[in-house]
Every structure is written in structure tokens, then in C-alpha cells.
Amino acid sequence: MTRFLRHRLFWPVVILVALLALNLVFTDNFFRVQMKDGHLYGSLIDIVRFGAPLILVSIGMTLVIATSGIDLSVGSVVAIAGALACLRISDLGDQNSIGGVLGAVGIALALSAVLGVWNGLLVAGIGIQPIIATLILMVAGRGLAQLITDGQITTVNSSPYKLIGGGYWLTLPFSIIIVAVVLALTAFLTRRLALGLLIESVGGNAEASRLSGISARGVLITVYAFCGLCAGIAGLMISSNVSSADGNNAGLWIELDAILAVVIGGTSLAGGRFSLGGTVLGALIIQTLTTTIYSIGVPPETTLLFKALVVTIVCLLQSPAFREKVFHRRRRPQAPSPVPEEKVRVSA
Amino acid sequence: MTSVTGLLDLRRTVPQKYIPVMVTAGLFVAMFVAGGIRYRGFATGQIVLNVFIDNAFLLVVAVGMTFVILTGGIDLSVGSVVGLSTMVSASLLKDGWPAFGVMALVLVIGALLGLGMGAIIHYFEIQPFIVTLAGMFLARGLCYTISTDSIPIENSAFTAIAQTRIDLGGDMWVSPSVLIALVVVLGAAYVLHYTRLGRNVYATGGSEQSALLMGLPVARTKIAVYTVSGFCSALGGLLFAFYSLSGYGLSAVGMELDAIAAVVIGGTLLTGGSGYLLGTVLGVLVLGLIQTIISFEGTLSSWWTKIFIGLLLFAFILLQRVITARRR
User: What does pTM read for this prediction?
Assistant: First the structure.
């Protein structure tokens, strides 16, 4: 039982279950999943569907945070990817040509990965603190997105593009399938291959892992490129869902939500270990919270208040210092000085 | 940018620690001269004063941010606290509260918010990034809870402050907000460079553990800087309310990034322990002058501001890296 209580995903699961239970009481038919025209419908499906971009961005963010970095530029990358894809598609003679849309998607994703590599080079090559290195692209990126669309909201009318964010495939929303594929791929690469271990060792101690023969620089650049790519996919999803690109507002503040999702999921910002399952859980908590607030009928203006409350509660519950001070339960003897938790601890 | 040889010459004549601040000052002068050559009516004193007038609130907020960043922390809540301050002032004034009571209350709210965040950061050992992010959501959420509409401010004291022009002679003038901002800058510079608290701030940012082993009150210092930042944000919010004469829940969205950018452009290291308040002032002026130049250019669209600020950030961080790498 105590082992169960101490599992690092225990509190996030409790919060998610509590949120869902709240819906069971207050919202009719919340848990009913229907089959309509061969598509699955229902509140639960909607939560995953609308949360898909956030989950994607959070997956990329998890790996970056595992290297003890942070990527503030994902929101801008979301805007740039959507802007570029929509611009290319609106220039097509036939907006419904699959080849043209694939080309636009490919170019947008390639640019997203390149932007990620740029972040990675600043962090790993020049050695700039990640929060600042990515702040550059966060600020300049929104300007770039507006430059691409010339400050306008570019609308497209393309059914193949619409599929990415708003379409269905195999009775499921296509965005959920994309998330599942990316998640499975990431889990395979990091948990079945050595990549996860390399990431965690770089996050634990970059210098030590470099001395032990790991190309810390290569790992960092890969991770930032992957994060950029994930943000790019999320950007396509968001702009495809509304069939337009808004350089100013697309993906606004998604970086903060993604960081929250990662932290709620039990990944420490100090790096060195990460939990993909926890991150998905964290993103689902954030999305469920938003949906719950809407469905219960609380004025939507107060969404941010509830978000602040839940974030504070989850972070406090996960903080060893808080549990020690409030529940008087010492988990292990601690040094009397506030030495940051040993970062070298690597768990597979 | 200064050429590498120029930088090396500079290194011999002035102490290294002043180089980032001097480069920012040089950049400001260069931008001003370039603007004066390119546009008619640009190279006047009033243009510089206008940059102050339009950015007094950012200056105050950036001063608070400098304290936090000097200890190696970060405060993401400042923009929301500015918004909340304008909202609280506007709604209370509409209910007929006295102007000075409202001002005092707003400042107390800001300081208390900062105090609370600082206490959570220190005692529960949660990352400043996350705690102040929650604070940002909280303050912004409170804004929207008060009202989602813009509330005009018609109070006589507020409008009087907003419309007062302080003549400096020669057709030049400043607003009272600029004076308030300058008082804050001078006060903060005194605290940082001539008091025990200031030394503790630098020591905590340099190495928290060393500061602790030296017996410095790290807990008090860390909580104090977030309180200062909260207070400065609230004061910045009041200045913003004077400037816009309204309260709006969406005002000052993203100001935390402007403040962080100003601090970084001013040469303060984000890892803490090194930097000057003068640099922050110059950082705010550089940001303001970019906007002035873009408005003079006319055809240049507003998104260029963001791209320029991004490029500037990049250049300054690169410069910081070069300097800190040489020092070791």
C-alpha cells in the first residue's frame, strides 16, 4: 500500500480521477461514447482530441526537460508551422491535391525541426542557458510567423489538410491516431533503445556523460530538434482544425501548459529522469480541467484560477519538502543544506 | 556590434564587469544617432523623454525583475500582476473608493502575492518557474473574474496624474510616472549596491550554498526579492493605469518577457549574481527606442519589433558568453 502511495504517478492519477468523478456527478452522459456515422463521439473522446496538440508538445518538452533544459519556443514554432503550411497550401492551384498538401506539410515540419536544431545549437554548441536560448526564438518566432502570413490570418480550404486536425480515420479522430503513433515511437526509442538512458545521463550530468563517451552535444541537439518537430506537428493540427493560420494567437501560451503537464506528470525540472506516461497524464489533467470547467457551467473566465489552484496542489503534493513539513514524514535523512537533489540518480 | 579588436581594446581600459553595460549604452547611442541621421525630427531630447514616458511602467517592472534574476530566480507573474493592478484600481474606483486608498491597497496586494510566491519557492523547494507560472495564472484569472471588459477610470486624482506635464524647459516635458519610475530606480540602485540586502542578493545569486555557509539569511533574501518584484509589478500596474486610464484584463500580456529581455539586454546574467540596475534601465531604453524607430519608419510592420528584439537578445547573449568564457 505504501509503495502504491509513493508511486510518482499516484497523485496525478488521483487528481485526474477526482476531476472525472466531478463530471460524473455534474454532467449528464459524460462517460457515454457513441457511434455516429461510423465515428466515435463523446466527451471523453473530445478531451483527448482537443488535448492532442498539447500532448504532442508535452512529449517533446518531456525529453528536453529530461536533459535539464526547457523549451520556451514551442508556441512560436506551432505558429510558424501552421503559418508556413497554410501559406503553401493557399498558393496551390488545387488546394485539394494530396501531393501539394503533403509537400506543404513536409516543408513545415522540416522547418520546425530546423528551428529545433537552432535551439539545440545555441544550448549545446554555444552553451547558452536553455531558458534564454529558447526565449530568443519565442520572441522572434511570433514575429516570423506574422512575417510569413504578412500579418493576416491566412485561411485555406483543403480537405486533405483538414484531415490532420479535424478528420476521422478508422472511426477515431485522426489527431488521436497521430498522437498515439508519436507516443509509441517515442516510447520505443527512449525505453527500448538506449536513447532514453543517454538523455537521462546527459540531464543528470552533461560533463560526466561526455567524459564517459556519450556525445552530450549530439543528444541535446537531437532532443531539441525532436521537440521542435513535435511542436510543428501540433501546429499543423491546430491550424488544420480551424482551417487557418494566425501568427499572433496560434499556440499562445502552449509552452507554459506543456511545461505544467510535464511537471504535473512527475518529471523534475532539474532533469535526469522523465516519465512519458506521467506527461500524457499531466496533459490530460489540464485538458480535463478545461473541459470540466466548461461543462459544469463555471464562467470560463475563471479557468485560469482553477488551473492555478490545481497546479499549486499537484506541485505541493509532489514536493518532498512540502510533504516533510506538512505531514512530518521524513522520507530519507537529508543533508541540512539545500543541496539540490542529487542529479546523478538515473532510473530506467 | 563592436568588432572583436575593439572589444579587446575596451577590455584593457575598463574593468570587465562593466563591458556588457557599456556595450548596451553604446548600442543605445548608436541607434539614436542612426535614427537622427535617417529621420527628420528624431534627434531631439523629447524623443528620449518619450521613450521614458511610454515605458515608465516597464522600467519599474524590470527593476523588480532585476532583483529576482540577480538571485538566480525568475518571476513570470509580473505581467499578470500589472494587469490585475489596473483591474483592481479601475473596479474599486468605479465603486467610489478614494484614489489613495486604492493605490495603497494595490501595492499591498502586489507585495503580498510576491511574498506568498517567495515563501512557497523557498520553504517547499519548488522551482521559481513553476510557482510564478501558477501566480501568473492566478493573477490573470482574478483579472477575468473581476470583469472581462475594459473599465474606464474617471477618478479625478488618476486623471490629474495622467494629464500633468512636468515642464523641463525647452519644450521638453515628462509625466509624473517618469519621476516615480526614476525614484524607484534610484531607490533600488541604493538598496542593491549600498545595503546589506543588496549584498545578500548578489551573494545568494552567486552561490546559494556559499551564502548559506557564510551565514547569510538566504531564506529572507529570496523571499524579499519576490516581494520586491511583486511590489514593483503592482506599482508598474498603477503607472500603466495612469498611462491608459482604464483597467483591462488583457493588458500587459507578455510583459514578463519584455522585462526579462530588458534585464538580459542590460547585461545581467540569468544564472544570477552578476549585473547592474543601470544595465536594466538601458535595456528598457533600447527596447523603447526600437519601437520608436519602427514607428518613425512607418512602413515597417510591428512584427519587426519582435524579430529585432529576438536578434538583439541573441547578440547580447552571445556577447555575454564570450565575456564569461574569457573570464574563466
Answer: 0.84
